Amino acid sequence: MSGTVVLTGGVGGAKLVLGLLQVVDPVTVTAIVNTGDDFRHLGLHISPDIDTLLYTLSGKANTAQGWGREDESWAFLSALRELGGEDWFLLGDRDMALHVLRTAGLARGDTLSTITAAVARRWGVEAKILPMTDDPVATMLDSDVGELEFQRYFVALRCAPAIHAIRFAGAEQASPAPGVVDAIMTADIVLIAPSNPFLSVDPLLAIPAIHKALSDTLAPIVAVSPLVGGQAVKGPTVKLMGELGLPVDNDSIARHYAGLIDGLLIDSGDDCSVTDIAIAHTPTLMVTLEDKARVARAALALAAAID
Ligand code: FO1
Fold this sequence. Notes:
By secondary structure, this protein is α/β, with parallel strands linked by helices. It has helices at residues 11-23, 48-57, 75-82, 93-108, 112-122, 150-156, 180-186, 197-205, 208-216, 237-243, 250-256, 289-306, and strands at 4-8, 29-33, 39-41, 44-46, 128-131, 138-143, 146-149, 163-169, 189-192, 221-224, 227-228, 231-232, 263-267, 278-282. Helices cover 40% and strands 19% of the residues.
């Protein structure tokens, strides 16, 4: 197998993958997706970043909201509220079908990989969507209000607590999901999506066999910076970098991926003074489909120039 591999979290990464599908043959694309955000809620197994990839690539995503499905209804949630159930994590009626199907599959002994592949096939997604692992990995945040699970921090507390440290419980023992190492080792190009490096990409890098494959592969590795005009498009990247004592600039992003990446694609208005990797510029804000295709093309061109 050869093709393009993308290491990705949720919304920002899904945009890059969607752009990639406009410029290369979709069957040659493999998205390896963060599962550190996964958790059990109301007895259901939720895989937020896998959900975002599935919805985005099948044309079902609620792009305004940034997560969940378009044309959603909320009868389940309002009935749950009436009963005094936990309503801090919003589960739409249509979205619920995916969580119920996944939870039932896991209970039968299926894996997250096979369940994800079956849904992707059903929805006509030609790119491969691979969870980083079928084993449990949980992103845990050491904060000024104590240790927090990712979704408590992100959704319930709206990223308000200050973060001192991040760990990925279970990552050391986790095996990559089937196909992950092979995809990286046989790839022509590996891209790191403009997802949060600390929360969404680091969980993948914390799995030793994934880290080793990225170190061993002959494919050029290019990251797309999550900073646009020195700011993050969405989410807690800038706040988190400040709390971790890092300057909010592309030098910090390049240093974070030091030893792993060969190139960094940054926004046209930004700069990067790290000299031991290749740097290219393009407007990296991805609003329209054409924006997404442009960023994908620029990342592929940078990788091709390195090769
Ligand atoms: N994000 C929110 O900000 N609020 C929610 O209530 C919420 C519910 C939700 C349900 C299913 C799902 O797949 C994702 C959901 N997300 C929600 C998104 C998710 O918490 C994060 O965006 C990701 O974990 C970060 O990539």
